[in-house]
Amino acid sequence: MSAEQRRREIVRSARKAGSVDVTELSARLGVAKETVRRDLRALEDHGLVRRTHGGAYPVESAGFETTLDFRTTMHVPEKRRIAEAAAQLLGDAETVFIDEGFTPQLIAECLPHDRPLTVVTASLVTAGALALAERTTVLLLGGRLRSGTLATVDHWTTRMLSGFVIDLAFIGANGISREHGLTTPDPAVGEVKAQAVRAARRRVFAGNHTKFGASSFCRFAHVTDLETIVTSTLLPAPEAHRYSLLGPQIIRV
Q: For position 95, what pLDDT does the model report?
């Protein structure tokens, strides 16, 4: 097996399983661990994986995106902590945009039900989760439904969203970096997110530590557009400080 074939197999395995382990790859591919580590460094340089201690996980790109079902199985306790902290930032907002994705869905579930609130979302899952909250009005954005995320996109979605002025937007992303900003693999999804950023007075990004330093195909916002970033203590404090220098408050939970 050539280096190119080996690296294609590593990417395929990472995308299928959600992560790969150096020891396991070394045994399965019949090469030394240092060879696998070199492969992972090369793949990271090309933006296909992010290395971890002892392995790597895939980076979402124009050719690869995880499904909502898969996201509900990864880093769940961390995402719940982040969601609870993000919901505490509601303040006096009366209108809220909830992005597609699992962490935004968890934020929606943490919102208070004892006050009037209007929630705008493209996510069918989030809309369903809030449907029985008596004092919450849910506005579901129409459009083409993406099967992997159960969220709507395209011009129907952005046109409806462009007519709103929203107090607070809870934004998710497939990656966030100081150089490239907030990114997502699909241009249609990026357009919806960009419109939400334009429509909102306040913008909060909520995401787990694996999002940081990653970049995908379509940029829809800059770090400077954010009021607050909510993540976990798994993002090192020095790195969090570097993001804070660009403007947003950083909350690590």
A: 98
* Model confidence pLDDT, tens digit, residues 22-45: 999 999 999 999 999 999 999 988
Stretch (H or E) spanning 15: helix 3-17
pTM score: 0.81
Distance of alpha carbon 216 from alpha carbon 186, whole angstroms: 9
Helix, strand, coil percent values for the chain (each to nearest 5): 40, 25, 35
CA nearest to 171, candidates 114, 136, 219: 219
**pLDDT on residue 210:** 86
Contact call for residues 101 and 145 (beta carbons, < 8 A): no
Helix (H, G, I), strand (E, B) or coil at 48: coil
Distances (CA, A) of 57 to 13, 16, 21, 88: 10, 10, 9, 31
| Rounded CA separation 164/181 (Å) | 24
